[in-house]
Design brief:
single chain, alpha+beta, 8 strands
């Protein structure tokens, strides 16, 4: 027996257990307090995967110094394009001028909707600028929908050719249900002007 054994009444073990228990309780409390913030960040990240419900994208070759505009119209709404970049349904994210004032070499425009209004949608492409003689500009249009599904799914794709200034072509006319389903037999390319027959182009 050491001289200190007679003073050891188990208090040291009790204090050690209390410290461990308090540390564990504190850690659990911190985790519980952080859970809402972790969930919020997760939801924000999921929302950023595919902004909007109806997403319309337009691409044309990056080496072409031409200005092509994307125009879309939701049911019972006004057309959205470079001089009307937003309304109650659609927003145009960026008016790409070709290579002029572009930080990247990609020619690309995109519009997206907030919610899905049932009815007919119209997607047009419009050659705003001058096209050099003999130049053919291929324009790819893709339509995706994020409705009752977790992520956006592509429903339509086509490529059109533009050859002259103010040429406007209808890429798609189609109908959607309120849940984002494509109505069978509703897709057509029957021309429906959204800018040349609706409003004179304004200067950019």
């Amino acid at each position: 027996m050491t001289p200190f054994d007679e003073f050891d009444d188990g208090t040291t073990d009790t204090v050690f257990r209390d410290v461990i228990l308090l540390t564990l309780v504190g850690f659990v409390a911190m985790v519980i307090m952080l859970l809402p913030h972790i969930q919020k960040k997760k939801e924000e990240a999921e929302d950023q995967k595919a902004p909007g419900n109806v997403i319309v994208e337009m691409h044309w070759p990056s080496n072409m110094y031409v200005d092509v505009d994307l125009w879309v119209r939701a049911p019972r709404s006004t057309p959205v394009g470079f001089w009307n970049q937003g309304n109650d349904i659609f927003n145009l994210l960026r008016d790409d001028l070709g290579l002029e004032g572009d930080a990247t070499n990609e020619n690309y425009e995109i519009s997206y909707s907030r919610g899905i209004r049932p009815g007919e949608y119209v997607v047009n492409v419009h050659m705003y600028g001058v096209v050099p003689t003999g130049l053919v500009v291929p324009v790819k249009v893709v339509v995706s929908v994020r409705g009752k599904y977790d992520s956006a799914r592509q429903i339509l794709q086509t490529t059109l050719e533009l050859r002259e200034r103010n040429q406007e072509e209808t890429a798609f006319r189609f109908r959607l249900t309120g849940e984002g389903d494509l109505v069978e037999g509703s897709v057509s390319t029957l021309r429906r002007p959204l800018i040349t027959g609706y409003h004179e182009p304004q200067e950019k």
